[in-house]
Amino acid sequence: MTTDDLLTVSQFSVSYDVTPPVEAVRDVSLTVRRGEILGLAGESGCGKTTLAYGIQRLLKPPAVITSGSAVFHDESGEDFDINTMDETQMRAFRWEKASMVFQGAMNALNPIITIGAQLQDVFSTHRPAMSRTERRAEAGRLLDIVGVGSGRLRSYPHELSGGMRQRVMIAMALALKPQLMIMDEPTTALDVLVQREIIEQISDLRREFGFSVIFITHDLPLLLEISDRIAVMREGRIVEIDTARNLYQNPTHDYTRRLLASFPSLTGERGGFVRRPGEPALAVEAGSI
Amino acid sequence: MTTLEFTNVSKKYRVRGSGELLALDKVNFTLTSGQTIALVGQSGSGKSTIAKILTQLERVSSGQVLLDGTPIPTWGRPLRRYRQTVRMVFQDPFASLNPAHTIRHHIERPLRLDKVVPADQVEEEVFRLLTRVRLSPEQTIDRRPHELSGGQRQRVAIARALASRPKLLIADEPVSMLDVSIRLEVLNLLAELQREANLGVLYITHDLATARHFSDEIMVLHHGTVVEHGKADDVILHPQHAYTLALRNASPDPEKHFAAPTTPGATS
User: Is B239 helix (H, G, I), strand (E, B) or coil?
Assistant: First the structure.
């Protein structure tokens, strides 16, 4: 195993143990390299969130990891196998080594506690030796890093805009300088200008701190711009994984092509899009819905 | 031919503590049958205020909204008749249909309330509308919304909007909650229905790419002011206003990003 790899997922499968069982993730193998942004693209129900939760062992019954492994290669050279750690080790591992920006992060903050206190919680749990003053200083510093500003420590979530709340969530995920950040649709609810700012911030922070990112979204054009490599998921499987450029210019799988064609080009030709009076309607073949 | 005209429309909201918020500032535009105007802008730019005024959920503070030269009614029977003419398709197909009622009920209601067809032809008309939005009437009519996919639900919402045979349709982010691979299909369906019925469509979105391809004109709204309004291609390819340019540059554009001479696969 080269030291360039941060996370190796092999033959990972997750089922929801209902009747009939749903195989949400099927035999997924992938590696996340140190410092790279790996995009995970797919539509709702394709298993991308289940996979992300699975590699953090955050799944709750009826979801079961039925096979496979996820091994995290720490900077120190130590390997952590996510399947064999006990609860205490897992608690220490999460956030310290790999943190997560959850889907709908804008609503993930506790509405009745100030954002300062919520940020300091991370330190009280993972850095019990820190004094209150240190915790507060560190929380302020994090807010400065993400551009919210330490002046907002005493603000409640409702006093911040959606974009700012999203940044607070990113600050929280950064708190312990993890080596991996999993971001599940972090900008989906935001408008394009705010989205662009946050994306640029994530890129800058990655350059500064060198962490890897698994970026989950259905927004393929966005992924193409920010990712080093992209994995396309469908029905629990990875159908194609390649560099962003290759995936865009030479997609090999039909589904990737279809997904790419679902996004009309902003400045280019019309693609599968119809409009203009008089033109015949050209239904885009999108399978059965 | 139906014409809807916004003349110097302003809307103020009273905000507790800080006085007034000018949500729309002297907005002017004209929407006619058969035409599609996309309304783009950030959250808070006033897009939804325009939709609310058009559906008379809000009144204008100053200025005039004219439908074929007459001010739009504000109450009673005339308002109901107006609302038959201007219909809305909402963003969230999971929230805009009543989970307790069948699809039949959803589409029958406007038909019966607006007496679009005689009572004995209602069933037939429901079938016709479902077929028009390419749903199988036999398979959908007695189902409830939770039994349908997001795309199917949005088709039901479109069928419901078309039931009263409106002249104008306001589509507020009609595909943003749908899975990406069916978004184009639903937009293409809307475009086709529009041509069939010669509808005027106001397409509210923040997706510049679909705005460009779906609409004849684009109107860019920023803090309640129309900063740019022109032919769709002109606005996107040659933006005149700094804000339009900022919006365009913030939108993902892989084609430009990879700046390759040819982009095989992008359009298959």
Answer: coil
Q: Is the pLDDT of residue A278 over 50?
A: no
Q: How many domains does chain B have?
A: 1
Q: Residue B110: is the preceding peptide bond cis (ω within 30°)? A: no
Instruction: From chain B, pick out residues whose CB is under 8 angstroms from the CB of A245.
Output: 258
Ranges of residues in chain B whose predicted pLDDT is under 50: 262-268
Fold of A1-97+179-289: Rossmann fold (3.40.50)
CB contact under 8 Å between A268 and B237, yes or no, is no
Let me know: does A18 contact A61? Beta carbons within 8 Å. Answer: no
CATH code assigned at B55: 3.40.50.300
Measure the CA–CA gap between B234 and B232, rounded to whole angstroms.
6
pLDDT of residue A270: 60
pTM (2 d.p.): 0.83
- Interface contacts (A, B; CB < 8 Å): 149
Mark yes or no for CB contact A249/B260 under 8 Å: yes
User: Do B246 and A193 make contact, defined as CB atoms within 8 angstroms?
Assistant: yes
Which of B184, B254, B263 lies at the smallest CB-CB distance from A262? B184
How far is the C-alpha of B151 from the C-alpha of B189, rounded, in Å? 11
Q: What's the CA gap between A209 and A221, in Å, rounded? A: 25
Give the model confidence (pLDDT) of A241-272 as tens digits: 999 999 999 999 999 998 888 888 888 776 55
What pLDDT shows up at residue B263? 44
A283 pLDDT tier (thresholds 50, 70, 90): very low
> Does ipTM top 0.85?
no
Write the DSSP string, B92-134.
-TTTSS-TTS-HHHHHHHHHHHTT-S-GGGHHHHHHHHHHHTT
Domain that holds residue B239: 3-98+166-251
What is the model's pLDDT at position A201?
Answer: 86
Facing residues of B226 across strands?
A: B221
